[in-house]
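DATA SHEET
Item: assembly model
Revision: 1
Owner: S.N.
Input lines:
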Amino acid sequence: MDRRAFLQTRKKKISSPDVSSFKVSRTTSGLTPYAGTFGTNEIIHLLKRTMFGAVKADVDYFKTKTLSQAVNELLTVPSTPAPPVKNYANSVTAGDPDQAIASGSTWVNTNTTDGGVDSQRVSSFKSWWTGLMINQNRSILEKLVLFWHNHFSTETNNIGRAIWSYQNNEILRKNAVGNFKQFVKDITLDTGMLRYLNGYLNTNTAPDENYGREMQELFTVGKGIDNGSPPYSESDVKAAAKVLTGWTINNATNVSFFTFAKHDITNKQFSSFYNNTIITGRSGAAGANELDDLITMIFATNETAMFLCRKIYRWFVYYDIDATTEANVITPLAQIFRSNNYEIKPVLDALLKSEHFFDVLNQGCQIKSPVDANISLCREFGVAFPLASDYINAYYMWDYIRTQSSNMQQNIGDPPNVAGWAPYYQAPQFYEIWINSDTLPKRNQFSDTMANSGFTRNGKNIKIDFIVFAKTMSNPGDPNELINDSINYLFRLPLSLASKNQLKTDILLSGQTQDHYWTDAWLAYIANPNDVTNATIVKNRLRDLYQYFMRLAEYQLA
Amino acid sequence: MKRRDFIRASGTGAVLPAVINGFSLKAFGEDSPLNTLLASATETDHVLVIVQLSGGNDGLNMILPKDNYSGYYNARTNIAIPEAKILALNKFDNTGLNPAMKGMQTLFNDGKLGIVQAVGYPQPNFSHFRATDIWMSAADSTQVLTSGWGGRYLNYEYPNFPNGYPTSSMPDPLGIQIGSITSLTFQGPAVNMGMSISNPTSFYNLLNGVEDPAPNTPAGKELKYLRLVSKQTQQYATVVKNAAANVPVQGTYPANNSLGDQLKIVARLVKGGLKTRLYMVSFGGFDTHSLQVNPADTTIGAHANLLKNISDALKAFQDDLKNLGVEERVVGMTFSEFGRRIKSNSSGGTDHGAAAPMILFGKNVTNAVWGNSPALPVNATVNDNIPMQYDFRSVYASLLENWLCVKNSDLQTIMLKNFQNIPFVNSASCKNVAPNTGGINLITNSPNPFTSSTTITFKTEGGHTLIQIMDTLGRVLSTPVDKDYTQPGTYSINFNSGVLPSGLYYARLQNGTIQQVRTMMKVR
């Protein structure tokens, strides 16, 4: 279904305008700690960038904190979540060990011999992940897991075993704010990655250079500031591949292991970019230690820190890295990364507390990715999902939300290729690539659907209850305050007074000129919420107002 | 005109997009060649213009009872129009117009106006919001309907909207609303069937390519990009623009008259070739609780200004339609959520009331005053209301049948009940022809109407597919399909209606992001 939907999308004529002539000013601010006001606006900015949407309750929570306290808290990640569960029917293949798993128990420790079951496990995995994003804690973790998934890109389609995709995701979670050197080591030996980039086939007799190349080009060193020619050489790719020979996967136990008989024991010579390093070939089990040498060598260069900081910047701030930004933000950030022995947390800490991050010119300039747009919609409007304990229905609903993002060109677990999603590296359009004549109407259609009938399956329904949202605003009975407040939380750019007045008159006041008519309707509903007539009056008007908001271009910005 | 000059000239800082689709169409795919093979909706080139007077128009000071002037005067001495100033109507001596309405007097005497006295409904509601919803949904006083009467009509004519739209036979918006962003009138059983042009300024911004300013910041850059794509995907914006371009010259409309500004756009789009059947325009300010007249001269003041605006606007509109050669095709009606109390209050105004007159306009309306002057009690008290003579839904039903050529046997699927048909318009040109289909049929049922059971046939793309049976109040009565289909295809199920009472039901199909609603009728 996914694949077909994807192909159909491709066949359609998709257009996106040329706006290369737009020129805008950037900023000179750098990493100096931000000392200005840390109020509602700044908290919303911080939350929209580090979480999926700024939920009113979270904004209120952080109002009692300083910026430093808020960032510290966001950088504290929750413990490992419970794994995905079996939400699918038993296989018909005789003897499939999956049959022994009780419905509602996890499948991640039991192999299956049925391809159909495995693809249902992939769906289960993606639903589970979507559920974690929707139910995220006040933490940067879920935004980071998606960042690392985009960075260390793998595709469930190619990995071909749901358990390995899950294990890959576990590694992203475990290392999300940890040590990047350790992270690279873990991901190199990850079952999913070994399978995805053919590391498991890389042997002394027939070296496979796939991982050895991407490890340098996409995961660590990168191709330089302009994505031009890489600083390392082709011989470095070959040499790295040799270092990595002998690692493979135990299909029965789902762990990676080292087979010294398949390891290339010759010395590996690297180029001048790596200071002509020679990694001494080792025989026997000691061959496995060459990986540590390789990582030490790669992290001795400046490039890895620079490359990673640019990627972090494009994920959390903006895509345009001009010379000033490179000098004032990227370079000092890379310095922090290196001087902290590649700990990730100090980098995020410096960036998220900086003048640059809170610079007005850097607010509201991200186009939400499909996942960000759809998860944020659910979170900001407080869409009520079935409880996780009602796993059949919860997974159905998470799957629906996940499929929406997929239709809008962001299918978690299956980025287009090993480089991740183009909006994070493809100049000159970057984020704008998300938006075209096919995907923008789909975003509007999704918000329209969630505002109206919602999605129904198995007798359960998810949709936005606008009354729940309006009640969280400071004074929903006052049409002016309701509109102003809502705009503050949903948009990063203001609407003109004329527009707000028209929305108020046309929608909340149904053409009347006096504000008290809305106030009366709201209070009548509050006084007697079970009265269908009162409720319908208020609900229809709120639905029209927020549906309109969500169709405005401003709604796509974070 | 340069862009900056234009913004200055237009004098507003509105940043709302010019055109908003009722539903995001583009996502539903291109026009399929198959669509051209399907029959189109009922053939008629008739247009109905709905004029909403919001706030509750004081009908008794608009249409005056010359045959009971003393009763009228006694009930509202402080705001009564002097008898001598009342404008007379040819052949209808019992009735006259507010002196501010000279244009409408001319229209009436030229045979282009009809007046329906005391229109309302049983158990009137006095809340603006609720009463507006009743008028727009055509509900009973005690019934909460989630769809509008215009939306149900458009859903009847174009049952598959928005799947497969625009089609070659209906390339244009089904309904256009000007001057307001949204209304229940065009809400169909599943989706809104209309398109809105938020205000006249934004319409001309669209024609002139005027863009709202975006800040010179990274956020502004991305906003510009988003707006550009958004504009490209607003298919109806293009057809509206093209239609407007076909009509470079129009008649003169009164200045500073927002109703006139809106009607001018309607005339232009009708002449410009849009096949749009329903237009709705809005004009507000009728909530005249105090000082609705000038105490020194009751023929002038706030309410008189409103009436003059209506009168001038309708006159200019009618003249323009005539000059553009489309007068035969257009009929219009006014409505307001309620009339006002018979007895005026001490602050020179009137409070929320009940029945009120409706104005019908156009060359093809029956030139008459329908009904009698309102019955007024001898000593009106603060609680006295004008009793209804005509149900407003009878006016809607008559216009649907006699002007938009809806078959009598189908009327009930739109109006939900039977209402009296009254020859308010010349129905000679209504020849019922082709069946009403168009777009892509994803869900159908047969037989329809049915007595106890009917076969529902639906098309799925595969994956999760849901069919819900709902009543007109939007309640889900049963869910005959809620499962995964591994293969795309066409499937059938039998729906047994069991103990459900006879009446109108909707079968709603949900498949992935697609939804469509089928109207089913259960009969005895």
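QC remark: Chain B is about 25% helix and 20% strand.
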